[in-house]
């Protein structure tokens, strides 16, 4: 007797998955924020150990340090990343007439910037200081604006590619670029001595939280009202 193929269990709705991810990320972000704000000694000690070691490497390797400065100042700079999102929003309107999606993209990036600056002002964490700095940066340290912006932009663009059904090659290439960008910008900020490692982790966590909340809002059922077309 031939066995009937078993059906795969139904996948949970996208808005529920995103909301669950947002809850987990919110807890992790709040925990790290608290540890940074109270200057928890084990975290401060670990930050200092990693930062001092990477700074010594940065001083000894000026060629690599110069490359990292170009990447962080031009390729992965928050302004560059936001311009990429702006171009994506223009494309959505021009080629797809997807006004709702373009607005969602722009508002999410704007909210991300507001959250980032608010947390920076609230925590007011000093940046590392060195007698022989290889780079400089302004404003408070936590969370890393470069890391958070890269996470938000790459996360949103990956979500859009997934929704519009990118082919396998494009999807894999996009995921690779996103992973390299998000991880790479974090590495450069610590290497250049302008952030503590936990600043970068905070940027990643807060950025992922913003993306999860944005996806949950985008996918949330609208009750009896007709949902805007998402092309």
From TrEMBL:
Transmembrane segments: 74-94, 101-119, 139-158, 170-192, 204-221
Class in the EC hierarchy, top level: hydrolase
Annotated SUPFAM superfamilies: Acid phosphatase/Vanadium-dependent haloperoxidase
Keyword terms of this UniProt record: Hydrolase, Membrane, Transmembrane, Transmembrane helix
Keyword Phosphoprotein attached: no
Matching Pfam families: PAP2
NADP is among the record's keywords: no
UniProt domain Phosphatidic acid phosphatase type 2/haloperoxidase: residue ranges: 101-215
Gene Ontology MF, one: undecaprenyl-diphosphatase activity
Domain of life of the native organism: Bacteria
Stored InterPro entries: PAP2/HPO, PAP2/HPO_sf
EC number from the UniProt entry: 3.6.1.27
Family matches, as PANTHER family: AT30094P, SPHINGOSINE-1-PHOSPHATE PHOSPHOHYDROLASE
Name of the protein this chain belongs to: Undecaprenyl-diphosphatase
The organism of origin for this protein: Streptomyces griseochromogenes
């Amino acid at each position: 007797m031939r066995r009937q193929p078993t059906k795969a269990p139904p996948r949970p709705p996208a808005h529920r998955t995103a909301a669950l991810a947002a809850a987990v990320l919110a807890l992790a972000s709040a925990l790290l924020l608290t540890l940074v704000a109270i200057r928890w000694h084990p975290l401060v000690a670990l930050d200092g150990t990693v930062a001092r070691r990477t700074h010594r490497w940065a001083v000894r390797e000026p060629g690599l340090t110069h490359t990292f400065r170009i990447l962080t100042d031009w390729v992965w700079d928050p302004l560059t990343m936001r311009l990429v999102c702006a171009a994506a929003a223009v494309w959505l309107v021009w080629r797809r007439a997807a006004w709702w999606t373009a607005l969602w993209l722009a508002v999410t990036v704007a909210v991300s910037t507001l959250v980032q600056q608010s947390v920076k002002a609230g925590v007011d964490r000093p940046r590392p200081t060195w007698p022989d700095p290889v780079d400089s940066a302004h404003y408070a340290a936590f969370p890393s604006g470069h890391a958070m912006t890269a996470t938000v932009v790459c996360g949103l663009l990956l979500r859009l590619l997934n929704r519009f059904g990118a082919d396998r090659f494009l999807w894999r290439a996009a995921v690779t670029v996103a992973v390299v960008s998000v991880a790479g910008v974090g590495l450069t900020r610590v290497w250049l001595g302008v952030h503590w490692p936990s600043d970068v982790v905070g940027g990643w966590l807060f950025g992922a939280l913003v993306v999860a909340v944005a996806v949950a809002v985008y996918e949330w059922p609208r009750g009896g009202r007709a949902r805007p077309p998402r092309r």
